[in-house]
Amino acid sequence: MKKIKTGVLGYGFSAKVFHIPFIKSHDEFTLTAITQRTGDEAQLEHPQATIYRDYESMLDDDEINLIIITTPSHMHYEHAKMALNKGKHVLVEKPYTATYKEALALNALAIEKGKVITVYQNRRYDGDFLTLKDIVNRSDENTYEFDGTWDRFEDINDDTWRAVWPTE
């Protein structure tokens, strides 16, 4: 089978901890490119990958089959749309988009382009999610709500990019 040549947009925590280790450990993927706007950390840690300083240049690389988007959340829609329009399959770090309308638009564009787009959810195989899935599958009634809590052991600074969302 031909390897899935993968480009990672962004070189922050998510790319380093979740996505790149999976790509490197899975025989069907190869880390082909990384977009890191500044610094040389990606090149030092992944010398086999082409390092791009801007997303558009990485999207122009015809060798890349799959783009993984790990940029700030409010940019997911724009970046995913660009990747689909360049004929790439796309995996988007959660949250998928800022609005439901954007999510529907990306889904429709992926269908139109004949490409796969999906959201990354690393918790889907954790015990709590598997238990909920089992309950839903065994129940004769519909499940309408699930209330879960994921505690953090640090303060969350509201000025970080993770808290920035466009207004509609």
Question: Describe it for me?
Answer:
With 168 residues, the chain is an alpha/beta fold. The chain folds into two domains: 4-120, NAD(P)-binding Rossmann-like Domain (Rossmann fold, 3-Layer(aba) Sandwich), CATH 3.40.50; 127-163, no CATH class. 35% of the residues lie in helices and 17% in strands. The protein contains six helices and six strands, in the order βαβαβαβαβαβα. It has a six-stranded parallel beta sheet with strand order 3-2-1-4-5-6, with helices on both faces. Helix 4 (76-85) packs parallel to helix 5. The longest helix has 14 residues, at 100-113.
In short:
The mean pLDDT is 88. The chain has helices at 13-25, 41-45, 55-59, 76-85, 100-113, 127-138; strands spanning 4-9, 29-35, 50-52, 66-69, 89-93, 117-120.
What keywords describe this structure?
alpha/beta; globular; 2 domains; 6 helices; 6 strands; 168 residues; Rossmann fold; 6-stranded parallel sheet
Order of helices and strands: EHEHEHEHEHEH
CATH topology of the largest domain: Rossmann fold
Number of helices: 6
Tell me the strand order in the biggest sheet: 3-2-1-4-5-6
Number of strands: 6
CATH architecture of the largest domain: 3-Layer(aba) Sandwich
CATH superfamily of the largest domain: NAD(P)-binding Rossmann-like Domain
Low-confidence stretches: none
Strand content: 15-25%
Q: What fraction, in percent, of the residue positions are helical? A: 25-40%
Query: Rg from C-alpha positions?
Result: 18 Å
Q: Kindly give the count of domains.
A: 2
Distance between the termini: 45 Å
- Main sheet record: 6 strands, parallel
Given this structure, which CATH class of the largest domain is correct? Alpha Beta
Give the overall average pLDDT: 88
